[in-house]
Amino acid sequence: MKKYIQYFRLNMINQLKYPVDLLSGILDKIIAAAASFFLWYAAYSDDRIVNGLDINQILIYVILANLITFLFNNGKDREIAKRMKNGDIAIDLTRPVQFQIYTVMRSVAESISKFCLFAAGIIVILKIVYRSYLLNDLLLTIAFLCSILLGICLQAEIDFCIGILSFWFINYWGLSIAKEAVVEIFSGALFPLELLGGAVQQAAGFFPFQYMLAVPVYIALGTDPSGTAQSIMRQILWIAIFHLAGAVLYKKAVKRITIMGG
User: Fold this and answer.
1) Residue ranges covered by each domain of the chain
2) How far apart are CA 163 and CA 161, in angstroms?
3) DSSP secondary structure string, 178-218?
4) pTM as predicted
5) Neighbours of 102 (CB within 10 A)
6) Is the pLDDT of residue 245 over 90?
7) In the Cβ-directed half-sphere of 196, how many Cα atoms lie within 13 Å?
8) What pLDDT, in 10s, does the model give residues 96-114?
9) Helices 214-221 & 138-165, crossing angle to 10 degrees?
10) Distance between CA atoms of 192 and 142, rounded to whole angstroms?
11) How far apart are CA 237 and CA 234, in angstroms?
């Protein structure tokens, strides 16, 4: 376990070596969040309640959704696909660590470093500005932070599974674009799931994507319809499901690599 913790620490430090990349990503999300903020404010400033959410809750949702999306943009699925295609996966097989755990921990380390360097400060500012709407007690704050961490882990496990699937696809680009589109819609990254309508919102409940983003935001707002404890348990369940699925897919991929490579 110590070697995985060491990899985790080194990846967090590695994030600080490329401040320009980090700052450009931060600037990109600030612009996107600002654009979304003013768009939603202009659209719903006259209607104080929209599908059970008032305008302040919607604005907080938009900002937090952009922040969490910023944490998710690691591109590990594309990195895995590239390594599978060019044969660098063979190097990973020689490492004294499990490739799946190593990849997931790298992704989580990068996300946590982004959170500590940027997102945490924005959340504090939001709490000051929207004091009565956000994180109204200590337990809710702890649950929110746990839910964000679980959402990051779930995103990393899903990306690992999608990346491994590239072994069976000639053109991974289409699969990656389809994944990103589905995740953005059903995770609530573009807009609150309440605005999708009853049927679509109900369908979204059968997918894991809302547990990546929408659920942590709902917990922060204190509006989680399923209850905080139940939602966190479902996050853990989805992480376990995708971890097992990733392990099975990786095992099958390695067998094919071994056979084809002699």
Assistant:
1) 2-261
2) 5
3) HHHHHHHHHTTSSS-GGGG-HHHHHHHTTSSGGGTTHHHHH
4) 0.84
5) 18
6) yes
7) 20
8) 778 888 888 888 888 887 8
9) 170
10) 22
11) 5
